[in-house]
Amino acid sequence: MTALTTPRDGTPRVLSTPGDFAAAASALAAGQGPLAIDTERASAFRYDDRAFLVQIRRRGVGTFLLDPEGHRRDFTRALAPVLNGEDWIIHAAPSDLPSLAWLGLYPGSLFDTEMAGRLAGFDHVNLASMIEMLFDVHLAKGHGAEDWSLRPLPAEWLAYAALDVELLLELGDTMAEILDAQGKLDWASQEFEHIRSGHADITGPTDSTWRTMKGVSSLTRPEQLAVARELWMARESIAVADDRAVSRVLPTKVLIEVARALPRNAAALARVRGFPARRRSAVRFWGEVVDRALASPPRTWPKREFTPRGVPSRQAWANEFPESFARFSAARELLDALSLDLAIPTENILKPATLRSVAWSSTVDREVRSPLDVPDLLRDHQARDWQIELTLPILSETLF
Predict the structure, then answer these.
(1) In what residue span(s) does the HRDC domain sit (predicted)?
(2) pTM of the predicted model as reported, rounded to 2 decimal places
């Protein structure tokens, strides 16, 4: 096995100025074929998930490492005319496409090598494993979780980043051949287009609210919700001002526990699990935020929101609607068998949430009364044609 610790042509220098971007765009325009693209982000350290390094490789011109921070408009102005509308190859595209879209970059067509690996039946679909299995090459890894917003970036990090696209073009070609031989290339194309189109309208980060915090639905009292809201607003203000990940200001799990506990003094706040009690300034600051929320007029406290009941938990479903649950279970078992036969994970054939919704709608709500109605319901859940074709016989057999 060959160990690849640095790019074969050497690690490219980082391009970070408007002039650099223009030169890179001109070079890339002279290349041939699809573009292999990857990004490095720093969402564990910075406020959002923007790209701090963009790696691009194309046949005939090699690899480029581009740093858009500080000149993002110039980056977009130079690179968008060359990259947009072209064929892209990305590994795990849903993780990279949003940050690329924030830079105004959008593929014309997409080949996601991770999704290709799933559909081809690979046991391990991370980039290093696929490269190793197909090409007998061991990629140097280990820097994916680093703070890529640091400058200058260490040489070993840059080598790691360049290696992420070093063999990506070859991987795309090989996976296309494998999928074609398995009769799955059309299925993969539908998946790739679904991923591409799902990111085509993204222009910036999705706005978040305190209501979307994980765990906030477990708070039931208005004063708890008032504290959660005030803590969220204070945390958001700090995170935006400092360009710092919210988890580094106050982890959401801790925020929710503070709201649940409603601490009335510093000692009570310090006892909340996970709270940085040793930092007196943190105890004082967050204690003031809690006090401010509790001192606000009760009429301004938010109320708990109740969402319409959808599909219940499996245990409740089995207890309250045993015949319906039995039909759902039969469908799930047949899908699992189909998964083994096709060597495709069940969740890639049909999302579990989609199966639950279709089964519930067909056997309890009776919104779907005939197998003829199932395709439209599946499309409402964004199922692709190949998925509908494979699963409709199973759903028709078990749910009706």
Answers:
(1) 221-304
(2) 0.94
The CA distance from 62 to 83, in Å, is 15
Domains and CATH numbers, the chain: 2-198 (3.30.420.10), 210-300 (1.10.150.80), 314-399 (1.10.150.80)
Q: How far apart are CA 257 and CA 263, in angstroms?
A: 10
Give the span between the Cα atoms of 126 and 92, in whole angstroms. Answer: 8
Torsion, Cα 241 246 248 249, to 10 degrees, reads 60
Q: pLDDT per residue over 334-384, tens digit each?
A: 999 999 999 999 999 999 999 999 999 999 988 888 999 999 999 999 999
CA–CA dist 138, 132 (Å, integer) = 5
**CA 119/CA 184 separation, integer angstroms:** 7
Rounded-to-integer distance, Cα 396 and Cα 132, Å: 42
* 141-167 pLDDT, tens digit each: 789 899 999 999 999 999 999 999 999
